[in-house]
């Protein structure tokens, strides 16, 4: 039985590395490959986000759960805010919780939502996706909000993708101690 699903409710508007930064780092002086570089920026960011288990630039996510757990763990930290928590009550009617009934907090780089003091989660209809938590996550709206070590790692990936353009990129990154040293302090190991 499915426990949860996570979907993007709204895309981030900027990338943590601009085309100009990527080209400068990879020593690309031509404009002929601008489309390729733009695609590699996205691929590198997605690769780093997957490795870290984090959201870099602000993005809205919808977390769907079959029921309320004791504490809701929000994937893709850092969480910024809860937009809404909606659920299907026992009659199957859609309800939205008041923000005064829950709290968002961080513990050991994991963002959680729990009932506020003297509150409890309501009963839900026993069906898939009975609870939807919509929230914003990421370091911020601008590329400058992303930690410099993560930006440097993304630039390494872009340069590797551009230079090698083959399966060798994964091995190069695996062997690249700088890439690991830049990212490991930010990696989420488990929720």
Characterization of this structure:
By secondary structure, this protein is α+β, with helices and mostly antiparallel strands. The chain folds into 2 domains: 14-56 and 143-186, Hypothetical protein yqbg, CATH 1.10.3230; 59-137, no CATH class. Helices cover 31% and strands 26% of the residues. The protein is built from 5 helices and 8 strands. The strands form 2 sheets. It has a 5-stranded antiparallel β-sheet, with no helix packed on it. A 3-stranded antiparallel β-sheet has the order 3-7-6, with no helix packed on it. A hairpin with a 5-residue loop joins strand 4 and strand 5. Helix 2 packs across helix 3, helix 3 (148-164) packs antiparallel against helix 4 and helix 3 packs antiparallel against helix 5. The protein is elongated. The model has no long low-confidence stretch (mean pLDDT 89).
